[in-house]
């Protein structure tokens, strides 16, 4: 598995490092709009990460897992506070790279470290509601580049690319054709610095790969600063509800015209291949 430093990952955007937004505790949050008010926490087992999950978990509720990579590969697990609380409030357990208000840069190895932990006996003992058989890897900008490194990991069942794409054509040509699991792109339109890279990656995906690409004309920073992550919070949650929880109502956002009605410009392919048993 290829692991890149933040400098190499930032070069995925044409070397325009100065144009990469550095978020700081973005997104006002009330704990999310879902049925389970969420908050963040930490664990000594993962000192370089931040956990998000519901404060009160009803007996019998299983929480699929999102492994999240930060924008700019910045090691601050609170960069997407509102967005990640929104996702968690709908019944997900999230491990975000970076400690709360941490500093420095992450690599994709941090994602693998998180996956190793959520699938361990230690994690199951501490958080028995984790559904470690259903894991998605996703990230924004540089974090999305890191998420691509999770494609070969058989423990990951779906990939989310937020305002991101691989820079070098050779890298796109090496990685995109290997993607077989569902992959969803959430891009900020032609003004997004990652737009061209995402479009190239998209064009190289296999025809039989379940895939969806939405462009919302808001630029590289998306809507993460809005309450609960705004439109990206809605779309990102629906992606996980479908691919991890098997929620057919959430699938309608992508297959029934709801995304288009919300302003997304959409392309998709082979979505009929997504067949996930509902998880209550």
Q: How would you characterize the overall build of this protein?
A:
The protein has about 280 residues and is of the alpha/beta class. It has one domain (about 25-270): Rossmann fold, CATH 3.40.50.1820. About 30% of the residues lie in helices and about 20% in strands. The protein has helices spanning about 5-10, 80-90, 110-120, 120-125, 140-150, 170-175, 195-205, 230-245, 250-255, 260; strands at about 40, 50-55, 65-70, 95, 130-140, 155-160, 185, 210-215, 265-270. The protein has a 9-stranded mixed beta sheet, sandwiched between helices. The two termini are about 35 Å apart. The relative contact order is 0.15. Residues about 1-25 have low confidence and may be disordered. Keywords: Signal. This is Alpha/beta-hydrolase.
Short description:
This protein is an alpha/beta fold and 280 residues long.
Strand order of the largest sheet: 1-2-4-3-5-6-7-8-9
Helical percent range?
Answer: 25-40%
Radius of gyration: 17 Å
Order of helices and strands: HEEEHEHHEHEHEHEHHHE
Structural class: alpha/beta
Mind describing the biggest β-sheet? 9 strands, mixed
Indicate the overall shape.
globular
Would you count the extended β strands for me? Answer: 9
- CATH-defined topology: Rossmann fold
Number of domains: 1
Mean pLDDT: 92
Flag low-confidence runs: 1-23
Helical stretch count? 10
CATH architectural arrangement? 3-Layer(aba) Sandwich
Distance between the termini: 33 Å
CATH class: Alpha Beta
Signal peptide: 1-19
Organism: Parascedosporium putredinis
InterPro entries: AB_hydrolase_fold
Keywords: Signal
């Amino acid at each position: 598995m290829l692991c890149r430093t933040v400098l190499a990952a930032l070069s995925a955007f044409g070397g325009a490092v100065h144009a990469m937004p550095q978020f700081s505790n973005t997104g006002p949050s009330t704990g999310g709009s879902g049925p389970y008010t969420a908050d963040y926490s930490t664990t000594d087992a993962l000192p370089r990460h931040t956990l998000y999950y519901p404060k009160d978990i009803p007996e019998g509720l299983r929480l699929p897992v999102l492994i999240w990579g930060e924008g700019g590969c910045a090691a601050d697990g609170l960069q997407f506070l509102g967005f990640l609380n929104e996702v968690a409030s709908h019944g997900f357990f999230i491990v975000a790279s970076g400690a709360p208000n941490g500093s420095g840069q992450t690599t994709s190895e941090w994602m693998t470290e998180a996956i190793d932990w959520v699938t361990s006996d230690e994690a199951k003992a501490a958080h028995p509601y984790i559904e470690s058989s259903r894991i998605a890897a996703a990230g924004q900008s540089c974090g999305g580049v890191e998420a691509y490194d999770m494609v070969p990991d058989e423990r990951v069942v779906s990939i989310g690319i937020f305002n991101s794409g691989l820079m070098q054509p050779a890298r796109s040509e090496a990685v995109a054709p290997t993607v077989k699991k569902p992959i969803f792109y959430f891009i900020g339109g032609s003004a997004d610095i990652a737009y061209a890279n995402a479009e190239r990656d998209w064009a190289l995906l296999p025809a039989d790969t379940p895939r969806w690409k939405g462009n919302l004309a808001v630029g590289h920073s998306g809507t993460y600063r809005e309450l609960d992550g705004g439109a990206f919070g809605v779309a990102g949650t629906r992606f996980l509800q479908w691919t991890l929880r098997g929620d057919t109502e959430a699938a309608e956002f992508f297959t029934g015209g709801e995304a288009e009605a919300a302003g997304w410009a959409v392309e998709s392919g082979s979505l009929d291949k997504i067949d996930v048993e509902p998880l209550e």
